[in-house]
Amino acid sequence: MKNNFCKFLIVPLLFSLLTVQGFAANEKGGNTNQMTAEEINSKYNQILLDNQKTINKYDWQDGASKYDNKKKTMRPVALYDITGDKIPELFFMSADTDYASSLFIYTYKDNKVAKMTFDKAVQQYGSSRNAILQDILVSAGTTYAVYTNKEKNRLIIYDSNGGVDVLWYNFTIYKIEKGALKFERKVVKTIDWEASKTTYKINEKAVNATTGKKEFEKLFKDIDKMIMYSTNRDNFSKLGFKFTKAQDMRMTLAEAKKSLTTKKSVSPKKSVTASNKNSDKLNKSADTQDVAKLLQNKKFFNQAGPRDIVNMEIKKDLSFSGVNNAHHMDSKIVLSYEYQSNFKGKFEIAEKIDDYTYNLKLVDFKIVNPKEIPKEYRNNKDTKFEYVDEVSGIKKGDKFKLYLPGRTKSDLEPALYGPMGLGSDNGTSSSKTIEKTTIHNTTQNFYFIGE
Description:
Elements: E1 19-20, E2 23-24, H1 37-50, H2 52-57, E3 77-80, E4 89-95, E5 100-109, E6 112-115, E7 134-136, E8 143-149, E9 154-162, E10 166-177, E11 180-192, E12 197-202, E13 205-207, H3 209-218, E14 223-230, H4 235-239, E15 250-251, H5 253-259, H6 286-295, E16 298-305, E17 308-314, E18 319-329, E19 336-354, E20 357-367, H7 375-378, E21 383-387, E22 400-403, H8 422-425, E23 438-441, E24 446-450
Parallel strand pairs: 19-21
Antiparallel strand pairs: 1-2, 3-4, 3-15, 4-5, 5-6, 5-7, 8-9, 8-14, 9-10, 10-11, 11-12, 12-13, 16-17, 16-24, 17-18, 18-19, 19-20, 20-22, 22-23, 23-24
């Protein structure tokens, strides 16, 4: 955006609007020293690059909603304006240990990009030692939500954790003032399973059950935007959280970096000739035929989470079939939930990129669950079994790449070869290339490793 100055007159500064993931990142007027939207986004992008290693280290985030029940795609970044200046804040979860991840928020204030200040921090684990939210991978784990509701100028942080005997549900409400977070109130619900007792506190003071329950349940309602969350499959709906896909602000690291890049490269258009008019059909070249043979009768798997596994087998004609099994316990560690999705489909090798990389086209995909549940679950009082109509890592319209052994890892995201990825299952951490045939869902950033 350019400012036009005359000798005797300064034309008022126009607001520049930059859309980032559906939200505006406008420049503030009135001061010629203020950063442009492009400069702010560049700063945010650099912050993500500087923290990429610890962001990718956070690999225990769980997704839950109607449209995202079982995907194990990390979405630890968000861009959303909570201060009302039409410039989004940058949110991300960063893990500096193998078991503790902290929430960081960056904002544009006083003509610079800096960490958002806050009071009433939690101080638990890791080197940050100063955060308003941490996701701790211990005991029963942490369920959390960072969101706004219909109450203006508020940021609400919900978290629950605990062991088998005691469970804590916490709501911390911050008021947003002058670009900072000011602690307003805290609502806590405690369930003591051993004593069969539920208690409520508001700002550390005990309140009666009627008052506590009313305040507690009110905070689940009227969600505006869900900025960040992590939970198991059922927990949010049981608690009362309701939000749509359009209200979910979470992004993958790759999506966030792409959104913050204002200048996009444009690939040259390919000329259309008689030889490539039917480019959607399988390329019958010797290269692609040889690669197709490598995939025939090959098994692939992905452990989408500690209790979420996808197995898939590709057949001679590149059709495939598989099953996705997921499991979790209820909050009382009493009832077990088993989820299964049976599927089939077909790939085609669409294009050779280089000797180790090919584009795959998903030409068919469908869910083929049986009508009746397995016999072992029909009269099982301890386990609830359910067929579901989605699969972790595959859905119609997704784009895929095929990586062959010898493919370099240098331009792959670390998440693809992290603790459960190509580093441990597909080459050592020091290896520069992958060692197993890998199918990468580039739409969901999800991968399947060949056995």
